[in-house]
Specification:
The protein contains 1 helix and 43 strands. With 466 residues, it is an all-beta fold. Strands 4, 7, 10, 11 and 12 form a 5-stranded mixed sheet that branches. It has a 5-stranded mixed sheet with strand order 23-30-29-25-26, with no helix packed on it. The two termini are 23 Å apart. The N terminus is likely disordered.
Length: 466
Amino acid sequence: MRSESNISFCTSYISLFLVSCDKPHHRPPVFTFEPPSLSVFSNSTGSTIPCSADGRPSPVIRWVKHDGQAAPDLPGLRHVRHDGALVFPPFPAEDYRADVHATIYRCEISNVIGTLGSRDVHVRAVVNQKYEIRLSDEFVLRGNMALLRCPIPSFVSDYVKVTSWERIDGFLITPGIISGKYGILQNGDLYIRDTTEHDSSYSFRCHTENSVTREKKVSTNYSKIIVTEPHHNQPPRIMRRTSRVSVPVGQKATLSCLAQGHPVPTYRWHKVAGELRSLPELGSSVRQEGGVLVFHKVVSADGGTYICEVSNSVGQDKVEAELIVEDLAPKMKMTFPEKIVRPGSYVSLVCVASGNPAPEIKWFLDGIWPVSTRPGTLVSTYLSSNGDVISYLNFTSVDVSDSGLYQCEALNEAGSIKHAKRLNVFGQLFIRPLNNLTALADSRFSVSCPFGGFPFDSISWKRGML
């Protein structure tokens, strides 16, 4: 039927049949290498994304697009290799196609037992483009902070980053430098503190690297700061500022607020917490360098709005800056394999996941029933000292009724990830009742056969009422 929002739904009745035999049992397909979630590559190098599987009979490997349709071979652009790898050969810039080189794929493996799909694989090809970086000189009042910019063209800024600044005498300034004089902002700009006439004698140039092609470039020229003498008092005026910075948890972050004034202004940073303003806790993880607030490794609690106040004897100025700490979607760091056991055995399944915030781990049987509702099972979950979430599903004495496909799912606000493998217990085959299922028309749909017992030879599906 069709709803008022023009979304179609369908409901089907599905019948399942299991066949048991004494000959060597079939095994469902499993990934021996599941492709990664992201592949970024240059058009000059191309990319090969592996996908391999095991099972009995040997699984057939195919690649599908985000809509579930097969990804056919396209000569010179895309093909599936004999070992199941998805290959993108090097290609000229004019052959770039967004539907091929900037889209989502999945690897599917199947045999007579069933079909298993990989995680989504986000593919992004980067077309090499020529560019150059030209620097400009900057003026600064003596004693104030100066800023030299390294203007990377916007069409390559997603991949090209500043790796260092070089002073004309060979002195190298890197992002990790701890110096009372120099530092590098989040965007690669160089700041210089407590400027004097001596600083005008130095010139600087920036070094960059393309994270995809690994190409290194140096700016085409040197730039310098021109230090001028103040001739009268000036209230501070903020000339350069950071309005918003977004960084993943655990990474370095900088907030900047650079002013000009005479006498030389002083800087104070506050964090807004509701109606209250508190000074950030400065220490080994956070430090202030004049108008720059440096976070060595951001944590979730660092996120929020900060106020930079600049003042001298003749005036003041202030701005706000927002620090966004990006959540990390869960990742599985340890999972359990498929198991074949006899009744009465002790069985323990484990999943270890990381993420920010720390993910919650849930367990399901056959992708439908929460394991927490099953008698004879115990779920034990705790947080390790390094922030990993470790969850055990324990069976003190398994029974054939415990057979099935067990799934752990780790989820937080940033996303979720699942892992599922069968627990096969020797005994009579059976099928758990399967409720009616509802699906969106024209969308991908899958359902697992909720059976137990072992060994088994094949699974048959039949549509319609018996």
